[in-house]
Amino acid sequence: MLEDARDTRERPRRTRHRRPPPPPLNERCALFLDIDGTLLEFAPTPDGVAVDRELAELLNSFRRALGGAVALITGRTLANVDRLFGGARLLVAGLHGSERRSADGSVRRHERAAAELAQLREDMGRFAARHKGLLFEDKGATFAIHYRRAPALASFVHRTLRRHAAHASIVGWHIQRGKGILELRPEGRDKGTAIVDYLQEPPFEGRTPVFVGDDLTDEFGFDAVTALGGQAVKVGPGPTSAAYRLPDVSAVRQWLAESLEQVEGRQAPTQ
Ligand SMILES: [Mg+2]
Asked: Is 82 a catalytic residue?
């Protein structure tokens, strides 16, 4: 424990884990919600979860109360979320922001990332094959170059990968460094960019963003809404950049239900 404490003091990031629960939502917010582990409990498989009627109604009521400014931000595909919600075609950003349905019904898919990745994969595969001790690993959505057997090449590999990624890049790529390994992941699309994209469109524009999520990938969303003066809510334990925390799915549901009552209560006389 002492070791841990010393460790955290040295890190520049805010690593104290205690966060207060979020205040109730108001009618001027735009609501962005992760699905798994946030609105729905995890199941052994992603297809093992089911949307209960209560959740469907809660989301519907929020859409009415917030002028439609409710979107789901998830790692699932859009088609998968549509199936999950019984074909209800909600506003969804799927695959961590790589596909996104706008309020006008149009869907944007960022196929450019796939095309760029294919080119980089080919270039870097050839590069690795030319140098003894380098190992190229294709991981599908990303790739890695191992240089553990040729540590002297480390900075050369890094420079080469960075140069290729910068050349290819409309999407933007992040080079992840590990022990004897460099890995590439698309930087241009994440849950944060999906939220920022929504906020430039009706009915989201001009509203204060609130994002609720439980996972590491949700930190991108937390950073985005916090930078825009909104509220980030982390679900469950663990370090986070979010300012608020709720312990679990049922606490999220309860907070949403209570917020809805307040929002609807304020709107009732004139709507
Ligand atoms: Mg999640």
From this structure: no
* Contact between 94 and 74 (Cβ < 8 Å): yes
For 22, list phi and psi in degrees, rounded to 5: -75, 150
pLDDT digits (tens, 9 = 90+) for 21-78: 999 999 999 999 999 999 999 877 777 889 999 999 999 999 999 999 999 998 888 8
Please state whether the peptide bond connecting residue 203 to the residue before it is cis, i.e. omega within 30 degrees of 0: yes
C-alpha of residue 79 to centroid of ligand 1, in Å: 17
- 37 CA to middle of ligand 1, Å? 5
- Global pTM reads 0.71
Distance 116 CA to ligand 1 centre (A): 27
Q: Which one of 7, 34, 104, 214 is the catalytic residue?
A: 34
Domain 111-186: give its CATH superfamily: Trehalose-6-phosphate phosphatase related protein; domain 2 (3.30.70.1020)
Q: Does domain 2-110+189-267 have CATH number 3.40.50.1000?
A: yes
